[in-house]
Amino acid sequence: MTPATNQRHPDGDLPFEELYDRYFEPVNRYLRYRVDNTWDADDLTTAVFMKALENFSKYRADGPFAAWIFRIAHNVYVDYIRGRREYATQDVMLELAAGSDDSPEEAVLQGEEVKKLRQLLKDLAPDYRDVVALRYAGDLRFAQIAEILGKTESAVRMLHHRALKQLRQRYVREGGSA
């Protein structure tokens, strides 16, 4: 056996409780990014970890746990959208006034920018939304996103590049400054 095949992934030796503690916030942030209602996002996060716990014995430590748990999260999200029979919307997790020293006028302007950004994200193609959500809300690397979405890493990088380019162009076109 070669040294590379003899090594286990570091997550493979951790108990589920520690993995839960490590990945709860990123999964919850990803789901809050994808759905409008934070209550629904919290419920979906619970569903993700329930499915993960039920199937933990099937997890093989030959790949990153993050990719495995986010694949479950993505599938739970897709099931949620199908169940609602509506188009997916984005909820960008930007905390505006909490703990901010901004004036009320600045807070209103920021609120308008957030609304504009939410609409721009909502208008992206589904593949672009998936990559942007996993990259920024899930805080995942391109290789992990590729594994979750069943695409090559180069395809994910291209989707990410095109999504950001499209967002930038639309933002400038609608009067923002890039």
UniProtKB/TrEMBL annotation:
MF annotations from Gene Ontology: DNA binding; sigma factor activity
Record domain RNA polymerase sigma factor 70 region 4 type: where: 116-167
RNA polymerase sigma-70 region domain: residues covered: 19-85
Record has Protease as a keyword: no
A Pfam family this chain is assigned to: Sigma70_r4_2
SUPFAM superfamilies registered for this protein in UniProt: Sigma2 domain of RNA polymerase sigma factors, Sigma3 and sigma4 domains of RNA polymerase sigma factors
Recorded superkingdom: Bacteria
GO annotation (BP), single: DNA-templated transcription initiation
Entry's family note: Belongs to the sigma-70 factor family. ECF subfamily.
Protein name: RNA polymerase subunit sigma-24
